[in-house]
Amino acid sequence: MSIGLGGVVPSVLLVEDDGPTRVFLSENLIADRFAPVSATSAEEAIEMLASARPDAAVVDVGLPGMSGLDLVSRIREGGADAGWDTGLPILLISADAGPFSVVRGIDRGADDFVAKPFHYPEVLARLGSMIRRSRGATVREEIRVGPLVVDRHSRRASIGGRVLDLSAKEFALLAALAKDPTRVLTKGELLRDVWGYRAAARTRTVDSHASRLRRKLAAQGGGERWVVNVWGIGYRLLPEES
């Protein structure tokens, strides 16, 4: 498989405690021109992140000790001395594929989700898509909307130079709205593009994240209105001009 990355072999951190599954994924990823590095626990993965500098991670939810969900949260939280990219594309795999589990994984900061038992071509397609999106984001790293600056490369946002304290999904929602700040994005579009849903779902995820994001922007934005709810449709970043 070629995923169109200009001949660069992407590295993938594979975090899986089940030996046969780990070997299967590793061997097939190598055959498909990836460079996998393996960890059998979340703790081992954290130790490897800074040195391996992977382009993406495939994480099993059911790890011994620290769970895969907690690992995703730890990656996203990062820190000044973390030494890794907190925006690392992450594909979760789990034997529990119920709607609640999927939503919980995406809310923690995962970019996509595949259920066990999985079909390898699906893992491959989703992994390649995540890496392409991640590298393509550098074409326009910084988006400016008035005093708001959204830097998709560093995953930082600020208003008037004041940095916003956003979760991974709050930032992703803001970035999606900022790309076309006067356009209304439907909840279905946001669930698909920000949370990775492949079909419509009954969930308050968009509304709850939009509400928190609105409060944080208002607190730093000097009273300006942001993240406007268009009733029955979705959200836009800026209100309509009067």
Chain-wise SSE layout:
Elements: E1 11-15, H1 19-31, E2 35-39, H2 42-52, E3 56-60, H3 68-77, E4 90-94, H4 99-108, E5 112-115, H5 120-136, E6 142-145, E7 148-151, E8 156-159, E9 162-163, H6 168-178, E10 185-186, H7 187-193, H8 205-220, E11 228-230, E12 234-236
Parallel strand pairs: 1-2, 1-3, 3-4, 4-5
Antiparallel strand pairs: 6-7, 7-8, 8-9, 10-12, 11-12
Please describe what this structure looks like.
- This protein is an alpha/beta fold and 242 residues long.
- It folds into 2 domains: 11-137, Response regulator (Rossmann fold, 3-Layer(aba) Sandwich); 141-236, Winged helix-like DNA-binding domain superfamily/Winged helix DNA-binding domain (Arc Repressor Mutant, subunit A).
- 39% of the residues lie in helices and 19% in strands.
- It has helices spanning 19-31, 42-52, 68-77, 99-108, 120-136, 168-178, 187-193, 205-220, and strands spanning 11-15, 35-39, 56-60, 90-94, 112-115, 142-145, 148-151, 156-159, 162-163, 185-186, 228-230, 234-236.
- The strands form 3 sheets. The protein has a 5-stranded parallel sheet, with helices on both faces. The chain has a 4-stranded antiparallel sheet with strand order 6-7-8-9, with helices on one face. Strands 10-12-11 form a 3-stranded antiparallel sheet.
- β3 (56-60), α3 and β4 form a beta-alpha-beta unit.
- α6 (168-178) packs across α8 (205-220).
- The chain is globular.
- The termini are far apart.
- The mean pLDDT is 84.
